[in-house]
Design goal:
Order of helices and strands: EEEEHEEEEEEE
Number of strands: 11
Oligomer: single chain
Radius of gyration: 22 Å
Strand order of the largest sheet: 8-7-10-11
CATH architecture of one domain: Sandwich
Helix content: under 10%
Length: 167
């Protein structure tokens, strides 16, 4: 799959929301869509030509595509994902009415989920059954006032917390 680059310089200083829209048909019974390796970056573009020579051939040159070559990416490419780092996210963040909590579990487990405001008051508590693999749950946050919140998930394997913003 080819990388897609979108120039957002016309929106500098403005609040920008990026939305992904996907569709499928009724015959699909799997988890759904996943987006991987999204990066927002200051692109450095070079429009140039590179040449390689060796003692066995003459120079071989190639020009950069019309938009140049993007360098200085911060994405680290790995052959194996670190399961401890990849398994917990809240999307979208910031959010309006609903958030998706995505987490993975090495095995089926029970989780206790708490939402706190920044003064430490417990606002909501629920119990979730987690399946082995990736789990996704939707939470309605429409009744919370705008602000910063902490979602905490406790399982037998440990505890994870993540902040989210309600707009």
């Amino acid at each position: 799959m080819d990388a897609v680059y979108i120039d957002l310089r016309d929106y500098i200083g403005q609040k920008v929301k990026i939305r992904y829209r996907f569709g499928t048909d009724a015959n699909t019974a799997s988890d759904g869509w996943y987006i991987d390796d999204v990066e927002l970056m200051d692109a450095v573009l070079y429009n140039s030509e590179a040449c390689v020579t060796s003692d066995q051939t003459g120079p071989v040159c190639a020009a950069a595509p019309s938009r140049g070559t993007i360098v200085d990416s911060e994405i680290t490419i790995a052959t194996d994902d670190d399961p401890s780092a990849a398994a917990f996210a809240i999307m979208p963040n910031p959010a309006d009415d609903l958030i998706q909590v995505v987490m993975s579990a090495d095995k089926a487990d029970q989780a206790v989920v708490h939402i706190y405001n920044l003064t430490g008051h417990l606002l909501a508590s629920s119990a979730w059954s987690l399946a082995s693999g990736v789990n996704q749950k939707t939470l309605d946050i429409s009744h919370y006032p705008s602000g910063l919140y902490v979602l905490q998930v406790k399982t037998a394997a440990g505890m994870r917390s993540e902040k989210f913003v309600k707009e």
